[in-house]
Hints:
Blueprint: E1 3-5, H1 6-13, E2 16-17, E3 26-28, E4 30-31, E5 42-43, H2 57-62, E6 67-71, E7 83-86, H3 89-104, E8 107-112, H4 117-128, E9 134-136, H5 146-152, E10 160-164, H6 172-180, E11 184-187, H7 195-198, H8 201-208, E12 220-224, H9 228-234, E13 240-245, E14 252-260, E15 263-268, E16 275-277, H10 284-297, H11 302-310, E17 320-323, E18 329-333, H12 339-351, E19 358-363, H13 372-382, E20 390-394, H14 398-409, E21 414-417, H15 420-430, E22 436-440
Amino acid sequence: xxxxxxxxxxxxxxxxxxxxxxxxxxxxxxxxxxxxxxxxxxxxxxxxxxxxxxxxxxxxxxxxxxxxxxxxxxxxxxxxxxxxxxxxxxxxxxxxxxxxxxxxxxxxxxxxxxxxxxxxxxxxxxxxxxxxxxxxxxxxxxxxxxxxxxxxxxxxxxxxxxxxxxxxxxxxxxxxxxxxxxxxxxxxxxxxxxxxxxxxxxxxxxxxxxxxxxxxxxxxxxxxxxxxxxxxxxxxxxxxxxxxxxxxxxxxxxxxxxxxxxxxxxxxxxxxxxxxxxxxxxxxxxxxxxxxxxxxxxxxxxxxxxxxxxxxxxxxxxxxxxxxxxxxxxxxxxxxxxxxxxxxxxxxxxxxxxxxxxxxxxxxxxxxxxxxxxxxxxxxxxxxxxxxxxxxxxxxxxxxxxxxxxxxxxxxxxxxxxxxxxxxxxxxxxxxxxxxxxxxxxxxxxxxxxxxxx
Length: 454
């Protein structure tokens, strides 16, 4: 975490210290949340649509905060602790993070994409850790507040920072990229997430390509070469570009994939050995290819890359596999959902052998825009009864998945619910020993709650 004097922090954040006598006091870490205040931390109160963090500053000091940033327009700043006055606390947070990153000067990997960016981040982190001190984005701290906090949590002496960059609107990734100034930038893919805000996959591709805005002049841009929308936009870039994927003209190309019970094995053109990721789903191989590309970028050997991939640990609720006491195999993938990731997870379950029944529990895909009902119906139509035994849906949009599935399944193997309690009863009724159950929906649906029925 950041360790600086109060005077240094004031200079880095572009603020004015309330009393110069406090200048030599030490700051250890930064927080915007009183629930996460540690002794010696700098508390930064943010102002939102329905809250004002300045009202919690005194509480933060009671809990051990050593100093407070303060919007100069706000009244009654805390007494007897260093206060750094700024025009805007959010802008000061971002300025502080940029200054800290510049001073520590790690190499930076920026990652974005419609699907798979968190999994790719975890893989890249695991690969690079075999040779470097690496810091990564935790959880979903990937926006205009989370990214600065991630940077400020970076330990001194970090060699490489692996930073995930999320978005909901045009211009957001451009801002994050300019803040982080990556040495290498990765786009995992272009999907349908944020269709509601951006309107088309073309607009989504444009927004994702903003990650090159802050890419250093000698930086390298890595992207999924199987995506025509990204191929089209490569021509406008002035950086070195490398691709990964299945297409024959990709710089890093997978040649064979084998789904195993313990993970996914694959081979890459030009590499002597097979790679193994302890993660289900053939679609995750493309995320692994991005990690291989970044490993190459930083000079890792084939052995180091393979070791790092094998040791990957994913952020929670992403294809988490476990078995219940009743012998039911559960795949919890309830963190996020889009048509692309839904189809990949459905394919995964369809490919799994040795189970009595394969059961899908699917909920709403959110932020799909004006065509949301069509996307859900088409997803239901995508499910094949020869590979899947039961389809159970939850939510208003989930009902359209059921509608699409019934075209091939009929009425007896597809069930739709608006109440989780009713869904749990049906799931407990149909799922038995030696069955596999996939649970997947957008985060807002909290569909992982139905797993208690098993």
